[in-house]
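Worked example 4.2. Below are the chains of a multi-component assembly; read each line carefully before continuing.
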Amino acid sequence: MVNKATRATDTLIGHDTWNIQLDKNGQLKHFLTIEGLSTELLTSILDTAESFANINEQSVKKVPLLRGKTIANLFFEASTRTRNTFELAAKRLSADVLNVNISTSATSKGETLMDTLQNLQAMQCDMFVVRHNASGAAHYIANRVAPGISVINAGDGSHSHPTQGMLDMFTIRRNKGADFGSLRVAIVGDVLHSRVARSQIHALNILNTGNVRVIAPKTLLPTGIEDMGVEVFNNMEEGIRDADVIIMLRLQKERMQGALLPSEQEFYQMYGLTEKRLSLAKDDAIVMHPGPINRGVEIESSVADGPQSVILDQVTYGISVRMAVMSMALGREAGTSEVEK
Amino acid sequence: MSQLLIKNGLLLDPASELNHKADLYIENGHIVAIDKAPENFSAEQTIDAQDLTVIPGIVDLCARLREPGLENKATIYSETIAAAMSGITTLCCPPDTDPVIDEPAVVELINHKAANAAHSNVLMLGALTTGLKGELLSEMQALQIAGCVGLSNARLPIENTLVLKRAYAYAANCGLTVFIEPDDHWLSAGGCAHDGTIASRLGLKGIPVSAETVALARALEIVAETGVKAHFGRLSSAASVAMIRRAKDDGLNITADVSAHQLHLNELDISSFNSTCHVLPPLRNQRDQEALQRGVADGTLDAICSDHQPHNPDAKEAPFASTEPGISALTTLLPLATRLADQGIIDIETIVRAITSAPASILGMNTGSLSIGASADICIVNRNTNWQLDESNIYSAGKNSPFIGWNFQTRAEHTVIGGVLIHSHQD
Amino acid sequence: MEEIAKPEILLDKLAEQLKTLLTDRSIDQPVMVGIHTGGAWIANALHQKLSFEEPLATLDISFYRDDFSRIGMNPQVKPSKLPPQIDDRHIILVDDVLHTGRTIRAAMNELFDYGRPASITLVCLVERSGREIPIQADVVGQHLHLDKKQHIKLTGPTPLEFVVA
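Applying the procedure described above to all three chains together yields the following structure tokens:
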């Protein structure tokens, strides 16, 4: 097994980035970023998601856990898919859901954000699920909500998408078992702009993954990415060799305009996950993608639809993971008291 | 006019080689004697500077007053008081007001308002190109006659290198110094943080060091060819310090400064998306911070300025990248500068020089030293007190500072401007 | 303090009494549902003793508790295993200790989310004082009177033992 790159999470946490996520008992209060959370906490999120996965496999998929609570979806950045899974997760917990759609044109200024926030707080919601195109937006909101309100980050700029990171870990655990130390995981594609990749890298390292790799052209890698605890490859064939898990990232069309890549064709030629390249990974390697997939750009259709792909399972698991995070954040003040009969 | 005596103070002015306890005698707005009273001197007012240090009034190379154009953030009145209360007796503002300082009328407006406020002296840099657009030369001669002490294009680019060369050549023709903040706007466009590990983790668009060094290299070449006197302001990287050092060693007539916050903060300070640390140029890494400190210590960086940018509260109320950059920095210039001496990083003489005689000489002023005949601009400093910066004692209309909550050992107790005691600290 | 009989002895008593009750009520083909964790152990033992054909079902009431906001999420929730149809079925609900009655309330809520049983018979190994909800068991191994501050807990699954604190 190749040497693990330095775990920067141990050294470069910075001032209280993660502290606001935990309440005074160390329980999850806000879920803004995976960075800085403990192995124990991530494991308990995965375990809690397991129990909800069982519920979701039964005929009665609803539990009364969050009855009477109101969850507001604040999506400043358009997204049907993620919003739908959060809505479904909230409803399966019997919570009331409020969908607040704010057009992106009105929201580049902080005033609108604060005004929206204050209006919503007047409606006494218990939780905000926030997606915004500015990195740090979820932290901004969490620092300004009334005490008692929880904030879940559904994606902020290029910074963090923690529920996606956790559902990806759940997917890996379901397929490969809980010992991440024996795994080689490769993340391929536009890491530079990807909040999903950053969350995955933090989670993989906190869960003590044996070897975490990123595979991308230099123009799509952030400066100092090695310090996040990954091994960097610019060559797909080298990077994917013997991988147990391959995570393909979405390539957006705008990258061509920004002089980051010459064309989608060249990207596919050099980094696309084809059957041929997949065969360089382990025989039982799984193929993941946060979606939506660009067939013929990141991934060959037959691979996306093939037996090693767990892409659709990721969507299913997303509901359980989100149910887990929502219930953990809204059911705090847990003591060590004996359960009453 | 009045006769003012400052007695029992420790006079500290490296430019005049003063570092001993002595009395200071002021008459008609000028220093008339040191140590011994002149004949017929009868002090109308005496300041007892026992246990205090007497330095020349602080000269701040770059402070924005926001007027004209952005009066919702601050005004000449509010900021010149704040400067005086912070021991700053002269400040220089860049031309990026609205309207831009590219017409004598704007110079006159600012002079008029500053004179009415009658606090700190205000000097101005005129625009190098009209509207700061980087296309046409401004009427530099007229601006000089109106009173501008130098020329600048603020942080706005002059993309056309030929225009850049001609602007520098014309400035040289007028005998004016060009004040340059090196920034290649193609490399820095859209960025809000240093392009490094922290920005990558936070998902913030980075500004690489090359944005500064590419522009710096370009400017140095043109400066060398045109022979214009040049000052490079608000440097942020080790690489830039090295380039300035080499250029000076090669005999180029240049000076440089660094803002006080760059000497105390680095990229780690934005880790929690702290928007009070959103500044341009960005806070870079620890190695850059240390190189900037060494640059001040060895004289490569001649001066320390505040780069004062007061903001209204809304300007910082947004996710990091959407906030306006800048720190309200007048009140912290003195204590942040002397803190480096208290920490043993740079000796106190170099520090005092960097905030008094060096910037004064860069601006071509007859002040910045405690010498006979000099204008009586004096700052009397307590170096052994303990106070905490908060919204009430930051003085400026802008409260945007990451140093709120910091404890400081040094404070300006009295400020004398043109021989008049303008400010005394009250507890 | 009164003496508490050993669990094995109480189990025999429960099996006897339950057999009689089922005959009296003409209940045939019941579904036995044990409440995790202690109730499931008891139900397992009873299920074997009475040789029921219908497979043993289990219920985890973690998501139906009324004290969720106070004590938070329990990450070790086990899946509830109920038959696909409980409409018109006779349920034998089994738990180890009946105290405040809240657990049984939660269990019944969960059962009714699945369907409409014909009847529910409650079997408890031990019933102790301190009821806070009007719930009574149909079959009880032993009635106990304990102080408010005392707690009785069943440990297991082998050996099954009572712990009083």
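Take a moment to check your reading of the output against the notes. The mean pLDDT of chain B is 96. Residues 210-226 of chain B form the longest helix (17 residues).
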